[in-house]
Sequence to fold (184 residues):
Amino acid sequence: MGLIMDNIFIFLSLFLVVLCSFMAFFMVLKQNKKIQMLTIALKQQSELLLSMRNIIKNKIAVNETSDKAEIIYQDLLQHLIPVMATIEVMPRQTSEHPLWRALGGIMDEYSQNPFVLEKLRRSIKLNPDIARHISLYLTRANMFLQHMATTDKDGILSTTFTDGLLGQSLTFFAQAQALANTEK
Fold:
């Protein structure tokens, strides 16, 4: 009987060891699956954080460009206001940026009344302050367009500025300045 009990005890012990080994094996497999899922989740989080970083970096670059453009716009507008007062032109009544409203008002008035060019020519010729504002406007607008041409990779934005109100105003003001300077 002692031998049978010893064999049963050994068999039960062996059975418990095998059972515990299987349980440990399945627990390790389950933990391995969890670790793999955690690794995938961490990889996705890392990719998401990298994507967020790139978006924020691009937004910062856009904001810096917008801030610089706003400074340039305000500088150009500063030179247009006295000119508009002298030639008695009002800005457009739109929700655009004040620079574009001012340029639009000037170009709209010129398209309706070509005598505006003559008013501007006389103002440039007779008022050195207006001549200075026109000269500074032309210089700074040309610098802005040159900067856009060198930094705009595909040329779409610089072409838009050149063909738009800014380019039209440069032509108009340069023409008025040339007329004023030739009749001295």
